[in-house]
């Protein structure tokens, strides 16, 4: 109330002063310009999901942005989170780089205060052969991953964001259209459905796989559907145990994975055909548990050629004194499903040929979308945040415009050099394991066993995934 009164008094004083000037000025135009100039921001972030909110928080805490104005536009209502006893069925497997980012912005301490799961070991195996690979915390000198509910992560980052004076968040923001910089322009314009207009020096699109920012940019977007759905649920383990292993078994219809939450609970991500997913969702709890245990435990008929190839290859590894097999740990049995936790979402691939144009950059799912079999989707987005934070900070330090193509091209180059190989590898794995064709089964089994045998190669893979 007092702020509004002071603002009105200042407005009246300005109008009176202008009216007393000895020459004629359009005071309404000047006041309109003065008010509209408050709608200009150095950075506008479109999309307030996990990646967009973290980007706003990261830039807001960057000391180089201390005197810059940042606007976060989120179409949804203000996120109100309250801890529930039942775990959410939507979780993310966060790699060490993402952990470091969240710790740096102060969000990890809030996650620690609530709950998360730790992955100290990962076991991946093929249902059609004896091939297996493991990743151990001891081998890698750092945690393999952290399993965090999406809502817990978003609430943790939101707590830090609320403390920042240089970041403004607008919820229920309905964006009508974007007007991106032309050849001689330096700003983007965001027109809202309620008639409000915002301008900015750099527009950052964090608005998901159906990004309006990307569509307005007009960049080529390569995408396809896998004709698969990812079934998620929170499942109960048959025995109370130290639950620190992430399990993933490649089935002919797609991988099934269990991610540790507590000693009694795990998060399920089961990728399968659309038709099979529909059937699984329609089962009773008891039937679903039986189907899940079968997916994890069922012994599939192995082709004799595959068996002989594996035996011969293992003898060769033994001869050159490389480990031919890992210590196989038995996966857990499932005793139940948390009520109402079963759901499914479509799986697909997408990649923008360009992440940037003048004054605009795509971040997270707006730029890239991958199959969840490697748990890298959200980590690629947080990697974008890390790189963009550093490069935009360098632009400010050098006195350049935030929308400078030179700096945005550096962001695009660095991230595509990391994202594209990762995405192609994930898509390749999906195709490689989505068949029962014997020569392919032999090839992938030998490859998996060879990767396990070469510890430096195994470390290189996990180090790349951790970035």
UniProtKB/TrEMBL annotation:
PROSITE patterns from the UniProt entry: UBIH
Domain FAD-binding: residue ranges: 41-306, 343-418
UniProt keyword annotations, A-Z: FAD, Flavoprotein, Membrane, Mitochondrion, Mitochondrion inner membrane, Monooxygenase, Oxidoreductase, Transit peptide, Ubiquinone biosynthesis
Gene Ontology annotations for the cellular component aspect, listed alphabetically: extrinsic component of mitochondrial inner membrane
Pathway noted in the entry: Cofactor biosynthesis; ubiquinone biosynthesis
GO MF annotations in UniProt: 2-methoxy-6-polyprenolphenol 4-hydroxylase activity; 4-hydroxy-3-all-trans-polyprenylbenzoate oxygenase activity; FAD binding; oxidoreductase activity, acting on paired donors, with incorporation or reduction of molecular oxygen, reduced flavin or flavoprotein as one donor, and incorporation of one atom of oxygen
Cofactor: FAD
Family per similarity comment: Belongs to the UbiH/COQ6 family.
Alphabetical list of HAMAP family matching this protein: COQ6_monooxygenase
Protein purpose: FAD-dependent monooxygenase required for two non-consecutive steps during ubiquinone biosynthesis. Required for the C5-ring hydroxylation during ubiquinone biosynthesis by catalyzing the hydroxylation of 4-hydroxy-3-(all-trans-polyprenyl)benzoic acid to 3,4-dihydroxy-5-(all-trans-polyprenyl)benzoic acid. Also acts downstream of coq4, for the C1-hydroxylation during ubiquinone biosynthesis by catalyzing the hydroxylation of 2-methoxy-6-(all-trans-polyprenyl)phenol to 2-methoxy-6-(all-trans-polyprenyl)benzene-1,4-diol.
UniProt-recorded name of the protein: Ubiquinone biosynthesis monooxygenase COQ6, mitochondrial
Species this chain originates from: Ignelater luminosus
């Amino acid at each position: 109330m007092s702020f509004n009164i002071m603002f009105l008094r200042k407005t009246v004083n300005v109008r009176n002063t202008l009216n007393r000037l000895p020459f004629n000025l359009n005071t309404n135009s000047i006041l309109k310009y003065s008010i509209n100039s408050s709608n200009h921001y150095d950075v506008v972030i479109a999309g307030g999901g996990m990646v967009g909110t973290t980007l706003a928080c990261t830039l807001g805490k960057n000391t180089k942005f201390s005197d810059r104005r940042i606007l976060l536009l989120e179409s949804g209502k203000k996120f109100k989170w309250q801890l529930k006893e039942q775990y959410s069925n939507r979780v993310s497997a966060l790699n060490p780089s993402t952990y470091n980012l969240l710790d740096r912005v102060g969000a990890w301490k809030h996650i620690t205060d609530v709950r998360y799961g730790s992955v100290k070991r990962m076991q991946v195996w093929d249902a059609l052969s004896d091939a297996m690979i493991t990743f151990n915390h001891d081998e890698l000198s750092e945690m393999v991953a952290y399993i965090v509910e999406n809502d817990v992560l978003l609430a943790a980052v939101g707590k830090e964001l609320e403390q920042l004076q240089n970041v403004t968040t607008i919820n229920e923001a309905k964006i009508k259209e974007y007007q991106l910089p032309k050849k001689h322009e330096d700003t983007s314009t965001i027109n809202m459905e309620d008639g409000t207009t915002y301008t900015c020096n750099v527009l950052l699109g964090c608005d998901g796989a159906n990004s309006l920012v990307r569509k307005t940019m007009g960049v080529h977007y390569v995408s396809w559907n896998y004709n698969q759905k990812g079934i998620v649920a929170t499942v109960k383990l048959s025995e109370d145990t130290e639950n620190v292993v992430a399990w993933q078994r490649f089935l002919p219809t797609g991988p099934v994975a269990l991610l540790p939450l507590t000693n009694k609970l795990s998060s399920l991500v089961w990728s399968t055909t659309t038709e099979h997913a529909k059937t699984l969702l329609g089962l009773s709890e008891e039937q679903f548990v039986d189907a899940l245990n079968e997916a994890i435990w069922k012994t599939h008929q192995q082709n004799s050629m595959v068996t002989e190839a594996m035996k011969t290859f293992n003898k060769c590894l033994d001869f050159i004194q490389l480990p031919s097999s890992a210590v196989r740990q038995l996966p857990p049995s499932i005793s139940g499903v948390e009520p109402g936790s079963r759901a499914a979402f479509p799986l697909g691939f997408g990649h923008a040929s360009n992440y940037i144009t003048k004054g605009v950059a795509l971040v997270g799912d707006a730029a890239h979308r991958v199959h969840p079999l490697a748990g890298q989707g959200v980590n690629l987005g947080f990697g974008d945040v890390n790189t963009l934070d550093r490069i935009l900070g360098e632009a400010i330090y050098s006195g350049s415009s935030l929308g400078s193509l030179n700096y945005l091209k550096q962001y695009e180059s660095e991230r595509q050099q990391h994202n594209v190989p990762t995405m192609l590898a994930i898509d390749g794995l999906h195709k490689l394991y989505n068949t029962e064709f014997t020569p392919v089964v032999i090839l992938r089994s030998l490859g998996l066993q060879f990767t396990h045998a070469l510890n430096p190669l195994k470390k290189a893979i996990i180090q790349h995934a951790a970035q």
